[in-house]
Amino acid sequence: MALQTAALVPATFTLPKEGKSSPSFKDSTFFGVSLSDHAKADFSSSALRCKRIFNPRNGAVRAETTATATPAISRSAVDGKKTLRKGSVIITGASSGLGLATAKALAETGKWHIIMACRDFLKAERAAKSAGMSKQNYTIMHLDLASLDSVRQFVDGYKRSGRPLDVLVCNAAVYQPTAKEPSFTAEGFELSVGTNHLGHFLLSRLLLDDLRHSDYPSKRLIIVGSITGNTNTLAGNVPPKANLGDLRGLAGGLNGLNSSTMIDGGEFDGAKAYKDSKVCNMLTMQEFHRRFHEESGITFASLYPGCIATTGLFREHIPLF
Ligand code: LMG
Ligand code: NDP
Ligand code: PMR
């Protein structure tokens, strides 16, 4: 599979004019969108947790982390050889397409335990079975990225499981190129940006501390981007083109009531909303890298998988495609 670091397009990300809401990157806002008070509480408590845990004077919390984390490398009692423990990887949307293929490939190495984070438990179970994945290599956990409450519940459940987290793969997405009318997430955000970007953003933000604490040799946060969001490529010039404009729709909540459903404030266009969401995905990894890489040792990456026209992503598609 060809991996390509996403090239980003400054032209698609324009800063707002003075006096407009600023798309500054704060812990509780992202690209100008203000998450609900509930979400704010989660973000700030997650930041607090991180401070507490990284404060060397706070012995109690450090003791807790050593109690829950399994050392990545342990010495085998029998022959004294060093062995690497199984890595733990969460893959969102692992019930089909690229996510399932990734889960299967990692399971086959025998070196990973895969947490398949899926909205449809039965579909995921059937998919894992038909991919021939062995039960001991995976766990299915419910996650609906179109609900920020579900994201929080998933994170709580994961933390309670006591598993370390070594890699997070944000793979799930929806694409609605033929929709005439927008649809919405549980909190009322336009569905594609709400699921692909906001759901993954909250998930990543809440799990960042767990990745930080991983003692695995390579800890990663990976998001699946798309060339179709990059307007400096031919594919990215096929209309409708991604464009975040001055973020006025996002700042207004993407709910179609007192704001547009589109990030740039324009008319709803499902194909554009998807491409915009992928630009946000790619920008998120750039910003996470800038903010957190050095201090945490986490590798942040986005990748473009090439065109796989047979996946579920294209359940709705235009005849040209
Ligand atoms: C849209 O329609 C719907 O409007 C939207 O609602 C949604 O459903 C979306 O993605 C889903 O689809 C898609 C639209 C795109 O298709 C049609 O309307 C059907 C008719 C299109 C038939 C056009 C065939 C043309 C073949 C072009 C071959 C390109 C070769 C170019 C060579 C250039 C070399 C530099 O299609 C259109 O709207 C038609 C416009 C086609 C634009 C093609 C884009 C190429 C742009 C090239 C610009 C290059 C500049 C940058 C280059 C950088 C290179 C590094
Ligand atoms: P699929 O539709 O096969 O996979 C997408 C997965 O996301 C499905 O498992 C789907 O679940 C899941 N999903 C959708 N909505 C939610 C939700 N609300 N909560 C949890 N999971 C959800 O498509 P692909 O494998 O093609 O897509 C995978 C990634 O690759 C996406 O990020 C896509 O943008 C990206 N990509 C794909 C390209 C391609 O050509 N295929 C090209 C460029 C990027 P369910 O099974 O229940 O529907
Ligand atoms: Mg594209 C020449 C390069 C190129 C590449 C790499 C892609 C990838 N596409 C290219 C060109 C074209 N496409 C051209 C010239 C056309 C006719 C105008 C075209 C059309 C087209 C459509 C209608 N292409 C599409 C669609 C979709 O609905 C897909 C899409 O945009 O999904 C968001 C798509 C794609 N083309 C690609 C890739 C990778 C996709 C799927 C992108 C994704 O899933 O993220």
From TrEMBL:
One Gene Ontology term of the molecular function aspect: protochlorophyllide reductase activity
Subcellular localization, as worded in the UniProt entry: Plastid, Chloroplast
Biological process (GO), any one: photosynthesis
Primary subcellular site in the record, as a coarse category: plastid
Superkingdom classification of source: Eukaryota
Pathway: Porphyrin-containing compound metabolism; chlorophyll biosynthesis
Reactions catalysed according to its record: chlorophyllide a + NADP(+) = protochlorophyllide a + NADPH + H(+)
InterPro entries: NAD(P)-bd_dom_sf (IPR036291), Prochl_reduct (IPR005979), SDR_fam (IPR002347)
Major enzyme class: oxidoreductase
Entry EC number(s): 1.3.1.33
Similarity comment text for this entry: Belongs to the short-chain dehydrogenases/reductases (SDR) family. POR subfamily.
Protein name in UniProt: NADPH-protochlorophyllide oxidoreductase
Source organism per UniProt: Gossypium stocksii
